[in-house]
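Lab notebook, page 48
Experiment: co-folding of the full assembly
Goal: obtain a model of how the components sit together before planning crosslinking
Operator: M.T.
Materials (sequences as entered):
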Amino acid sequence: MIEERRKRRRPIIDLLLIGLIVTLISIILVIILSKDEFKFQKISASKDTNSESNLSTENSAFPGIRIVSDVSNDKRSPFAVHYPQTENKVFNETVLQFITDAKDNYLSSMKNNKNKEAKGELTINLETFPFHEHHYSFVLTKMQYLGGANHVVSTTTFFYNNETGEQINIQTLLQNDNNNLSTLAAYVRKDLQQNLQLKEVLNEDELLKVTEPKWENFNRFAIVDDSIHFYFDEYEIASGSAGAPIVKLSLSLINPLLASEFQIAMETMEPTKPPVSPGDPNVKRIALTFDDGPHPKVTEQILNTLDKYHAKATFFMLGSRVKHYPDIARDVLARGHEIGNHTWNHPVLTKMPLEQVLKEYTSTANEIELAINQGATVFRPPYGATNDEINEKIPVPVVLWSIDTLDWKHRNSQLLLTYIKSNLHNNSIVLMHDIHQSTADGLDAVLAYLQGEGYEFVTVSEILPYRQ
Ligand code: ZN
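Observation: model returned without errors.
Model output:
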């Protein structure tokens, strides 16, 4: 009997069951899909409103600079972006605009990706490099993955003056001078052409295009220690295996192209004057000179070493630094050394109108007088770059050097004596810098050697009569 009933009901039950299963599956599918859709909307909403749930801010190692982290652990479209926040609203908005665009671009690409299994990734990392007193280079490296074949790495930079709140672009850095731009473009092009890593994969046409002397080609830069870095994106000029190329140029190479406030302290431009023949053969003299200070640590260490050998020297100071360290200038004088004027900001004087040259001289002369209660007695033009017109207008002797230790370049305390030894002659004037620790560290060996050779350590003004 049971069997008979079963037989009778089977088709109806089967149909009902199948219908029920299909309906349930459909409902479940609709729920899953709509949930997925809902998830996307939530992300979109969070990016549009900058939802605070995934934002955090912390202080950086630099005054007035904070680091914002914006992180989402979404399963399909996760991201982690980091960017700087300063005290300047306009600058912050510029940075935030870049971040918002990057996130929008990534999230909408992922949303439109037909492959719903695809998992994306967006990271933006921040590096901060301080330069001179108030400048910072922010380098934001973006790595984006849209679930397809390749990760794409690209770099965006911001160069920022923390004191004025200004963002500084490449035009300002190169004095808005098209000749400077052309020189820079040639350096960058040459560097890329000589890059061995790029050799096999370089696209020469693209290389020529991105290194054309156009301002917009060079806006991705950072000043990192003694170099300026120019960034190129992955695939921009070479296939992926080369990564994202970075051109690193020494600041000393492009120093003459830079606006004076960005120039670094160095001495290279003018060839060294040939040694002058000896005066009194019975006495050997040498004038040690230290440029670009005063420096709170290095100058003091140099003074202590000079004292140890009862040596007198000459310090060519920058007005901008005397302003910060008048006590050190006073200490230099008190310990019997000569103080010289080395301009306010260390510009290339031969590239300036005479009026501005005299302003560099006078402002520094005034600052030194304010600090030590007497005037600087000698003048040294930065890089040794001077001409007859300048020499005539400067009221104190203009003094170059006869031995260049290249201490700014090698930063090697042991090479200091090597360079002096190989150029040593009577009545020489030795160029060094009291802003490099290596110079202070190498000085003791220099003094010990010269004293052993019978040299007397005198100031520049004392040696000048023997150099005529
Ligand atoms: Zn100098």
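Interpretation: The pocket of zinc ion is lined by residues 265, 267, 291-292, 342, 346, 382 (CB under 6 Å).
Next step: discuss with group before ordering constructs.
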